[in-house]
Recover the amino acids of this structure.
């Protein structure tokens, strides 16, 4: 199944900002006014407006003016504006990715507004904390603040922000896989959005609804929601969203057997991607269209699209897609009996793949050569000794039987040594086989224990903590200490512990792996690990139509966990590409990132490298670690069937 683009918005801004000259004129005017005025209250208002305007175009400039506003508000004890500046600064740090300062500033604003009994201000600050906790996967805390805030904001008559917060609650439920509740909140927000002609918001809501319906397998409503998203995007001439929504819609058609409709929709998406001049989007659409035309045996159309896409992939050095495009073009050339082109594309494809395997193969060749040379020298030595013995026997025909006996004894010693060496090698091989069996038993026991612990955590400890949260919340409410900072700290700690244990349980033995197989498990792992640390990823799989052997699935999943953790911790990557290929002789698994690259010497000494190597040895597999042709790291795993 192709990946559907998920649009989940956590911030109170659904409209992409387009820089305008009018905004720059307003900023210039405010700077002049700030310089000329001596009224400190007016200065705070100007600094707040500058912070808000700059937050849309320059985070560093926004933080500069927010610091000036904070210092001035503290100086004149203007607590209302101080809280406003803390919220504004927290939002700027949030966009910059500084989680610690963002959370700190939001809580400072919350404390001030609680002291001022500013009910609406408290609710709006909690809404900002929803954004923070949602981004950093603390979904229970985000949900508590959202539900506390939404009713207050709604009752105060701020319908726009209330419904945007309802959409965020829907997004939180979506992340928690509670699709019925997510649907309920999205539909409520949609009703408001349509009533006030909030077209950009409506577009986003229809996109999210399409995803929910897709998960619920309500294909008709999924299609209708995607079409509505396109309709509203056209009202605002947002060609990018039109193209993305059509791309998602085309994927739905293709995944549900409506091939012609899917191709037609992707063709329309391609038209809009050209309108907003996205070479990458256009190339990817051509690439996907080409693969579907190939499946329909429309080789002429597929060939042209592959050529167009290939030109862009060569320009940006996307070797993974170049590898696949060359393979397809080779098949097309073969169908036309143009064998010269077929061999050309085959050689290009092989050169890309072989480059990554070159170091590993070279090392194996060197090991084989060393082994061969050693055995050759042993044979030559034995042959030399045998020939020498035979010569001595020929020369000793006239000698006594004593010399004959000595010569025979020498030959017997040589034969004994040869037998001894052969038996020694057999013994060493038996030891190696026993070690392999022991390691297999250890890995099997480890996976079995992981499964048991994961079940115990999920069905036992997690449920107990959940019960403790509910009882604590009920007790704090009865004691009227729900707003007490200590009470909130206790609940927050329990919720974070529950979330952490749930994540640990899932990582130890994900349900997707045992129930749905490797493809679904890897997709779930990538979504859960990379999507929330702002690392983009793609996952493609080819010819994996059935479940792979259990040992291979578990091994590849554990390797993926190891590699994803390393990417998050060390690589500083912004995008990751994962590819699983089931070929005639091998299962090939490729992971590539655009980070700082791998230190091969240091990595080979690490525990993670040894774990990967040990696991692969058990299933007749091998791995090569190399620097990517672009930048970053490329890991290629090959498992022989």
């Amino acid at each position: 199944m192709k990946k559907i683009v998920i649009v989940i918005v956590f911030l109170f801004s659904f409209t992409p900002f387009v820089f305008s000259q009018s905004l720059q004129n307003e900023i210039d005017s405010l700077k002049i006014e700030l310089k000329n005025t001596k009224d400190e209250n007016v200065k705070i208002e100007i600094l707040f407006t500058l912070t808000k305007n700059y937050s849309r175009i320059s985070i560093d400039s926004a933080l500069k003016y927010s610091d000036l506003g904070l210092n001035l508000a503290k100086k004149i004890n203007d607590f209302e504006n101080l809280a406003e500046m803390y919220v504004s600064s927290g939002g700027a740090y949030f966009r910059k990715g500084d989680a610690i300062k963002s959370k700190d500033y939001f809580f400072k604003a919350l404390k001030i507004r609680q002291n001022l009994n500013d009910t609406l201000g408290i609710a709006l600050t909690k809404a900002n904390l929803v954004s923070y906790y949602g981004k950093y996967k603390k979904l229970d805390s985000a949900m508590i603040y959202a539900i506390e805030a939404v009713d207050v904001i709604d009752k105060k008559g701020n319908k726009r922000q209330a419904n945007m917060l309802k959409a965020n609650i829907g997004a939180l439920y979506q992340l928690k896989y509670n699709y019925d509740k997510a649907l309920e909140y999205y539909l409520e927000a949609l009703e408001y959005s349509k009533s006030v002609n909030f077209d950009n918001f409506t577009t986003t809501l229809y996109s999210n609804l399409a995803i929910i319906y897709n998960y619920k397998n309500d294909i008709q409503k999924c299609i209708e929601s995607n079409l509505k998203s396109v309709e509203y995007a056209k009202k605002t001439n947002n060609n990018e969203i039109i193209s993305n929504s059509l791309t998602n819609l085309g994927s739905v058609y293709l995944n549900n057997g409506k091939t012609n409709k899917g191709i037609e929709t992707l063709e329309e998406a391609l038209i809009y991607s050209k309108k907003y001049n996205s070479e990458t989007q256009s190339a990817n659409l051509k690439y996907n269209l080409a693969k579907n035309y190939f499946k329909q045996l429309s080789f002429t159309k597929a060939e042209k699209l592959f050529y167009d896409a290939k030109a862009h992939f060569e320009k940006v050095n996307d070797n993974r897609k170049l590898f696949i495009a060359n393979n397809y073009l080779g098949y097309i050339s073969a169908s036309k009996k143009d064998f010269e082109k077929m061999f050309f594309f085959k050689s290009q494809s092989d050169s890309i793949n072989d480059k990554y395997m070159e170091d590993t193969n070279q090392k194996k060749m060197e090991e084989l050569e060393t082994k061969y040379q050693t055995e050759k020298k042993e044979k030559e030595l034995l042959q030399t000794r045998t020939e020498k013995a035979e010569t001595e026997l020929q020369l000793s025909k006239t000698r006594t039987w004593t010399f004959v006996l000595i010569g025979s004894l020498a030959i017997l010693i040589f034969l004994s040594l040869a037998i001894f060496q052969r038996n020694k090698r057999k013994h060493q091989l038996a030891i190696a086989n026993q070690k392999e069996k022991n390691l297999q038993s250890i890995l099997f026991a480890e996976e079995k224990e992981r499964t048991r612990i994961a079940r115990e955590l999920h069905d036992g400890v997690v449920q107990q903590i959940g019960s403790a949260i509910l009882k604590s919340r009920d007790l704090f409410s009865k004691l009227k200490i729900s707003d007490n900072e200590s009470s909130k700290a206790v609940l927050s700690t329990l919720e974070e512990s529950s979330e952490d244990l749930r994540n640990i349980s899932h990582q130890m033995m994900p349900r997707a792996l045992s129930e749905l197989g490797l493809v679904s498990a890897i997709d779930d792992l990538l979504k859960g690990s990379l999507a929330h640390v702002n690392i983009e990823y793609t996952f493609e799989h080819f010819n994996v139509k059935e479940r792979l052997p259990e040992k291979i699935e578990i091994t590849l999943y554990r390797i993926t966990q190891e590699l994803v953790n390393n990417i998050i911790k060390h690589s500083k990557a912004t995008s990751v590409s994962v590819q699983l290929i089931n070929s005639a002789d091998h299962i090939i698994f490729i992971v590539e990132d655009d980070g700082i690259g791998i230190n091969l010497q240091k990595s080979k000494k690490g525990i993670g490298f040894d774990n990967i190597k040990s696991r692969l040895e058990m299933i007749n597999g091998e791995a090569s670690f190399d620097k990517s042709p672009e930048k970053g790291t490329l890991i290629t795993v090959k498992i022989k069937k």
Observations:
- Confidence is low (pLDDT under 50) at residues 1-19.
- Residues 396-506 form one domain.
- The two ends are 24 Å apart (CA to CA).
